[in-house]
Amino acid sequence: MSLKHIPNSKINCLIDEWIHSERDRKILKRRFIDGVTYEKIAEEFELSVTQAKAVIYKSEKILYEHIQKCGQL
């Protein structure tokens, strides 16, 4: 699965709707909309790279579940 075929405006709306943690929303937007690397995200949010990846993967799974339910992917 990939979010590459979904416009940034739609990704932004999905993140706002389904990711409830403000920090996690910011992290996802930096990754998927701004294209920032895991390393840079980790630095910006004072996390380890492993922690940054875990937040992104967990939130990504939530987004994919909702996208599939709505038939958007």
In short:
This protein has helices at 8-18, 22-32, 38-44, 49-70. It is mostly helical.
Helix content: 55-70%
Query: What integer value in Å does the Rg equal?
Result: 12 Å
Ranges with pLDDT <50 over ≥5 residues?
none
Q: Pairing-aware structural class of the strands and helices?
A: mainly alpha
Arithmetic mean pLDDT: 91
Shape: globular
Q: Could you describe the largest sheet, including whether it forms a barrel?
A: none
Description of the structure:
This protein is mainly α and 73 residues long. It is 70% helix and 0% strand. The chain contains four helices and no strands. It has helices at 8-18, 22-32, 38-44, 49-70. Helix 3 (38-44) crosses helix 4 (49-70). The chain is globular.
From the structure above, extract its key features.
single chain, 73 residues
Layout of SSEs?
Elements: H1 8-18, H2 22-32, H3 38-44, H4 49-70
